[in-house]
């Protein structure tokens, strides 16, 4: 099994929004910010090649279809995801599965592409099954008022029309080495991806725990639509991560990509920061 991280681009998010009710006096010690109080976030995707021949892409970043509508987020260093995959020897046709943690714009923009501005969007990975949480899909079709502006129908409707959308209604094994688990809170039916690497379990935590700084259970983003649920779901993920020494991948942290977790006096903390090198695990820093 080979697990590779792909930084699909960066954007700026308001620090107050990222850390919700946590005062700046506390969060400023854990995450850098600029003079407008904005935090630089990455949009980290993961390419997983399994021993059984699956080529799995986890999340796709913002893509480039809605950059004008989203200019407030000041995107930078956006990559062409297809070219990034090609540089790793993977063509768009070779991708067997696309797992979308959820359907907010920063996670699924490259699920579909336009061949030109006048064309309609088509699935970017024509042979792939696209995996989405069922309740997340329902929320995408009939969004809560707080999330409506984070969803763009053209990012997923062409996938549904192609017959390649597979909705996940319960925790599911994609194959022997990769499983999908449902988490609520940030948004309904988010998927976290558990990868059973020979060196240990690696977890794509999605926006359940977007930053290493969000490891503290009460540090819930103001973007989370059901914050009390977020708290309990995060604790569920962290408890297992501590007990099983799992490696968490933080999808938005521009400075810390992965770490293990420790629990001290009932507080969760980042333990060892991990570097994935050439898809191999782990190199403890
Ligand atoms: Zn996000």
Automatic annotation (TrEMBL):
SMART domains: Lactamase_B. GO terms for molecular function: hydrolase activity; metal ion binding. Residues 42-252 form the Metallo-beta-lactamase domain. It holds the Pfam family Lactamase_B. Keywords: Hydrolase, Metal-binding, Zinc. The keyword Zinc applies. InterPro entries: MBL_superfamily_lactonases, Metallo-B-lactamas, RibonucZ/Hydroxyglut_hydro. This is Glyoxylase, beta-lactamase superfamily II. Belongs to the metallo-beta-lactamase superfamily.
